[in-house]
Amino acid sequence: DAGVLSKAWYAATCDRKMAEDALYRSNKDGSFLIRKSSGQDSRQPYTLVVFYNRKVYNIPIRFIDSTRQYALGREKSGEERFDSVAEIVENHRRTSLVLIDSQNNTKDSTKLEHIVRVS
Prior knowledge:
This is BLNK protein. It is built from 2 helices and 8 strands. The two termini are 22 Å apart. By secondary structure, the protein is α/β, with parallel strands linked by helices. The longest helix is centred in the first third of the chain and has 11 residues, at 16-26. Strands 1, 2, 3, 4, 5 and 8 form a 6-stranded mixed sheet that branches. A two-stranded antiparallel sheet has the order 6-7. The protein has a single domain, classed as 2-Layer Sandwich (SHC Adaptor Protein), CATH 3.30.505. The model has no long low-confidence stretch (mean pLDDT 93).
């Protein structure tokens, strides 16, 4: 289960719209949660949803079969890989996560600070 089931930030029954609504309501930079990805693809099992600067970012979490590890976003050389989804969260509570807005072609960064629960 990638170490997500018992975590406060894991929204097991949440879809994209519910996640985005909950983050807009929180209205705090660095608010986040993790949900199951919409596509139900084993190579991209989860999505990290982050609120920053009045925008919600949906960042895919990929599962890398060959190393049994996880990584964020599209595959790139020299990417950070993690042994669990929980490690991704722990890492980005300490170090900033780069947020890329593909529509406006802008880059921001924030740490994962506020866990949002979907009710």
